[in-house]
Amino acid sequence: MEQQKLYTAFLLEQMNDSNSLKSNKIGLVLSGGGVRGMAHIGVIKAMMEFDLEAAVVAGSSVGALVGALYANETPIMDMLRFFKETPLFKYNFLSIGKAGFLDTDRYEDIFKAYFPHNTFEDLKKQLYVVATNLEKGEELCINTGELIKPLLASAALPPVFSPVNYKGSLYADGGIMNNFPLEPIKDKVDYIIGSNVSIVSELNKKNLTNSIQLTGRVTGLMIYAINRDKIKSCDLVIEPKSLEHIGILDRKGIEKAYAIGYESASKQFEKLLS
């Protein structure tokens, strides 16, 4: 008898979760994480297949870029094309007289092809983007006015990309201060889906044999520790552990990260909505 009650309670809880996901206003938070952020596109693809749509989106770094494409209702294949065709290392993009190896401003024309109106107000969904003010040591959350400069700033990972001059100050990657920007949307929606690609899984000693691997691991642990409570506070979290084996600048991992995100999200949505 007691087991039957527990099972009934479990079914009711599942039904409530399903109803919440289907009928309430959904918010989507997209973390930073370089190429691993292609998993966000896979999550969005799965959301579409399960007839789920976010009304409000917040993103940092690559999450800001994917979030902007989603808020602009860019087709999935065009989202992937954006990242595949945008050059990462190109000789005439090399920075001269600026901090950083690549001149971030050189990417502005590429972005204009996808965001010709260049304003937050012209997006189809409400979007919040986080960037880091390097001079003041503060994060800035942007959701109005010019779009492309904040996007470039949010994704300007030091020291690869040069800081972006926005409204008289130098800005860089949003993930420096806030890699999982839950704050701007948590009081604006009823149900929050978090897609976190800055994950931490168990590593073998063989993956910690040089300074680069060690630095990457320590940085990843710090970022995850800072954002862990926010990630866990989401109603649904998608963070595939296998993403850690894809390098944050490894363009060959674009399709793999996308597939991992899609598969992980599909399984969770199917379990929740079945």
TrEMBL record:
InterPro entries: Acyl_Trfase/lysoPLipase, NTE, PNPLA_dom. A motif (GXGXXG) lies at residues 32-37. Keywords: Hydrolase, Lipid degradation, Lipid metabolism. A motif (DGA/G) lies at residues 173-175. A motif (GXSXG) lies at residues 59-63. The active site is at 61 (nucleophile), 173 (proton acceptor). This is Patatin-like phospholipase family protein. It comes from Maribacter cobaltidurans.
